[in-house]
Write a structure and sequence with these properties.
single chain, alpha/beta, Rossmann fold, eight-stranded mixed sheet, 9 helices, 8 strands, globular
Length: 259
């Protein structure tokens, strides 16, 4: 895993600290240090999942850290027999991976492989309570103890490990992996795209377009999760030099803009 710093400092720190830390490498390193945890073997498992006959789907799991297995869905067209560019899709609060299947099929029709996971305390990862009870309880526990990152950071780590998993697949082009998120998933996509760049690609004379992992990023950010204008500009510098689309919720005056 490489470097995801800027937004973590935006969310947890202050604009002042961002202004004092303008070096992208240091920004990424600081955030990675904050979310880092002992690495474990992926120990990935996969089995076929029923879907329409024109798609090939799998239900997979992998270990993102000790005691934490991440469930997900992988889907592509049956016509895709070679390595394909892949898009990771991330759902929002109160949702689950299955609700993204429509978008996954649309992308598969256009030649992409697709993958999605349940974020922490969502979908198959709910073990107690109903709906968002476990999720809210986890955030309250973090507020009281200062430990954990159930709102964004734990899932960002899972996404980074998901990319590690996708890179092991013979049907995915590891140099063309993009990410798309909605609402909370959009914020997580923003963070993961900003940080997960190979350190060897940070040199000014390196062809970042060729070597950066994420082929494209699409993020939808609701009003409640928008960052201040100055901090958004700082954060986007970590994603630049790759295709990037940001669609703002229609509650924002500039909702029609696509950047």
């Amino acid at each position: 895993m490489r470097a995801l710093t800027l937004v973590a400092l935006v969310v947890c720190g202050s604009a002042t600290s961002l202004g004092q830390t303008s070096d992208p490498a240091r920004i990424r390193a600081a955030f990675l240090k904050m979310i880092d945890r002992p690495r474990v073997a992926l120990a990935a498992e996969s089995r076929p999942r029923l879907d329409a006959g024109i798609y090939r789907a799998e239900r997979f799991t992998f270990a993102s850290e000790a005691g934490e297995r991440v469930p997900g869905i992988f889907l592509k067209s049956v016509r895709a027999t070679d390595r394909r560019p892949a898009i990771v899709l991330l759902h929002g609060t109160g949702s689950r991976k299955e609700e993204l299947l429509g978008s996954m099929r649309t992308l598969a029709d256009r030649g992409f492989a697709t993958a999605t996971i349940d974020s922490r305390h969502h979908g198959e990862r709910i073990t107690t309570g109903a709906d968002n009870d476990q999720y809210y309880a986890a955030m309250l526990q973090t507020f009281r103890t200062g430990k954990g990152g159930p709102y964004l950071y734990d899932t960002v780590w899972d996404v980074m490990r998901l990319v590690d998993y996708l890179e092991t697949r013979p049907d995915v082009d590891p140099k063309r992996i993009g990410i798309m998120g909605i609402s909370k998933g959009g914020t997580e996509a923003y963070l993961a795209a900003a940080v997960d760049i190979p350190s060897s690609a940070l040199s000014a004379d390196t062809d970042l377009m060729e070597r950066a992992r994420a082929a494209a990023v699409s993020v939808q950010i609701p009003q409640s999760e928008r960052l201040p204008q100055r901090e958004r500009r700082q954060n986007l510098r970590l994603v630049r030099l790759r295709p990037f689309v940001r669609v703002n919720a229609d509650s924002w005056p500039h909702a029609t803009s696509v950047r």
